[in-house]
């Protein structure tokens, strides 16, 4: 499939089934994972960016070996994502990637880890960041606090000072993360 054909497909509304079908095509190499990745990061149409990120999430979940081909790029470019809808998906993927059980995290280059940490802190403290992204970023940072000791102190500071919004979802996640940081 050409890049233009892919863009044309992503410009129209899609159901979950359609997105799963595109993810399957990525797995079967009918659609290039690199094209999906690039569109999720840098396209003029915010809907194309969002839908490409949605496909990327489904590739990560259902076809992890296909996602492996761009995982290092994803970590390197994580903080460059500017589309809020795509940030939600990126932070959700990062939340899973950063879990201590992921052996891949032991191989991540320091600069890519820094990008993940800085991007997550930036999104977390930005008052314009939607709550769902902030919640995901809290989990990313909590997960990464096992790799970098200083993260726990910084994250605890932000959460205890109540620098984030007072939404019930965020307060609930804050309590949960603070409890994890104490262990």
Name a few traits of the molecule.
mainly alpha; 183 residues; 11 helices; 2 domains; globular
Proportion in helices: 55-70%
- Which overall shape is indicated by the principal axes computed on the Cα atoms? globular
- What low-confidence regions span 5 or more consecutive residues with pLDDT below 50? none
Q: The biggest beta sheet, please?
A: none
Order of helices and strands: HHHHHHHHHHH
Distance between the termini: 49 Å
Determine the structural class based on helices, strands and strand pairing: mainly alpha
Q: What is the arithmetic mean of pLDDT? A: 89
Binned strand content: under 5%
The helix tally amounts to 11
Number of strands: 0
Rg, please? 17 Å
How many domains make up the 3D coordinates?
Answer: 2
